[in-house]
Amino acid sequence: MSFAVISDWHERAVKSRQRRRRLAWRRFCQNGLPVVGLGYAIVLLIVAIVGPLVTHQPTIDIFQANLSPSWTHPFGTGQYGQDLLTQIVRGLGGTLLIGVAGAAISVAIGLTIGIAAGIFGGWVDAVLMRLTDFAFSIPTLIIALFVVVVTGFSAWNIGLSIGLVAWAGCARLARGLALSVRNGTLMESATLAGGSRWYIATRYVLPQIASNMMVFFVFQVASVLFQSTTLIALDPQYVPLTGGQLPPGTNLLLNLLNGGGGSYIGYRWLFWFPLGVYCSMVIALLWIGDGLQALLNPQQPLRARRFAIWHRRRPIRSGKGVNLYG
Amino acid sequence: MRGKRLRIIRTIGLRIAVIPILLCMLVIIGNALGHLTPATVNPSSAVPGLPAAKPTPFWHSVYASFVAIGTLHWGTSPEITRDLVLRSLEISTILTFGSLFVAALIGIPCGILAALKPRNPIWQAVSAFSVLLGQVPPSDMAVILIFTFCLGWHLIPLTDGWGTFGDAILPIMTVACFNIGYMVKYTEAGMREVMQRSFITAARARGAGTAGVVVRHALRPALTGLLTFFGPQTPMTLFCTVIAEQAFAIPGIGTMLGIKVTTYGAPAFGSGTTLSVTLFIFGMFIMVLNLLIDIAYLWLNPLAD
Question: Where does the sequence pass through the membrane (chain A) (predicted)?
Fold first, then answer.
């Protein structure tokens, strides 16, 4: 046995990992739609981050009210003469914050409960799963509405309120996945090696179910956004606690979405542009989720590359007849 | 077979027995949340100079909400009588179940056809469009439906309120659109998976036609995936119903309870009675729906215990 053979083995491992990654990326790209969704989501993210830095709060000018789309106002102007595009760009960040914060909080709670139930088993499992069943059968959004009222209307609070009540699906999924990991031999070896419960949960179970949780997270962002639209349709901003005033920092895309319906006659752009941006955002998220699902499914057959213009340079396979172990 | 039926009946009986306990827990939770409002934590007087009224003690308010629920005083104001409460319950039930029925009637056949014809662009477009339809917020969907079917094409007379058959069409469609999206998606996915199983091949080999295979053999196992996904969606369906009631001015439970956040503003909501009654009614709807879904699941899934 020589060092050369060992280094060859390492090289092979790296190559195979690269190949697996390339195949996963091809599975993600196969449909085409996930790539479009990913590109669109990245563009939206950049706009949401950069937009508030390069635009000013839209000015109120009633002589410019309800102008139809033109070169100076690409999306038209609103009821008080504010530029709709600027409003959308400035409101995008808060909307994305609602989705991401809500999904992150719900996934964090659900993951903790699900993994605890899956690893501990026994009465802990029974209690936590009955709790999850209870969370499934209560009107969660009414509690979320209440949390918004008590904590005040802002993007972060809406995300928090929905995240606090929407964790049940995640808990059930995480428990199922943790159970499937627990019944394998890996867990036994970890226990025999003297790993504590916490060590096993964080080092053995979590990495194995993280990819599935990522898919769930993407779909959960879309779900939280939908729930927040229904929450906002119930006018939570006109609360006595805030004196009937919109607090600063609540320039949300979802508010525009809610207000556009009243302007449908005559000023249709006030309805269709926010709705279009919202729906395209959610559909892009769903496409990304579908792509991630395909990426995680190695059994899915890959089509032959039809449009490969150049052939990929492949290293000559030298290993077929060589004894790996020297 | 008889043993299985007994097991099913026992499971359902257990579920029904648990419902009142869960509802009582909901009422207590509602009151506990009501005691967290700023009005209760820091009571302030409506008239300057006078001392603030003491908030009701917790168990008193729990008792009060149980009395309110038991005597059907469910509204936010005393003018809402028992008849109005029962009528609003009836209206909301029709809206919820009608929308689910319509969604299933449209969504499941579309999903089956999209699964059976993967190369047909029309059915693939229908499948993609239904996903889009499911993502449009219900408040906007109501606007779109009104302006398309009432004012644009003059197919349905523009009305508000409740009473005739025509009043029910658009609200039911508004709620159904939310459900059609995932019904198509999950029926399609389930059908695709089931059609590759060996028992389908065996049925085909015995000479059954496509329609026979789908209806007799593939439909039941294909719908179980949809049902497992559907359980968690029931609260959202109910919330869509509330928004449809607002949009079309229908006197359902959402309107009766005045579900706006303004209701939960300080003094009116200090005791938590309104919140607990709201949670009770919605919890009841959700639990009954979930029970029906469980029964349907047990009936559909041949392996279910």
Answer: 28-50, 96-124, 131-150, 213-234, 269-288
Residues of chain B with CATH 1.10.3720.10: 94-252
pLDDT digits (tens, 9 = 90+) for B160-215: 778 788 788 889 999 999 999 889 988 988 898 888 888 888 888 888 888 888 88
Q: Give whole-number Cα distances, B98 to A61, B95, B104, B144, B174, in Å.
A: 46, 5, 10, 20, 11
Q: Does B177 touch chain A (CB under 8 A)?
A: no
d(CA A200, CA A190): 7
Chain A touched by B236 (CB under 8 Å)? yes
Q: Is B246 on the interface with A (CB under 8 A)?
A: yes
Tokens 């038209």 appear where?
A76
State residue A307's pLDDT score. 56
Q: With beta carbons under 8 A apart, name residues in chain B contacting A145.
A: 259, 261, 264
* Pairwise CB contact (< 8 Å): B261 & A282: no
Measured between beta carbons, the chain A residues lying within 8 angstroms of B235 are 138-141
Superfamily of domain B94-252: MetI-like (1.10.3720.10)
Q: Look at residues A221, A240, A125 and name the one whose alpha carbon lies nearest to residue A171.
A: A125
Nearest-CA neighbor of A39 among A291, A294, A297? A291
pTM above threshold 0.95? no
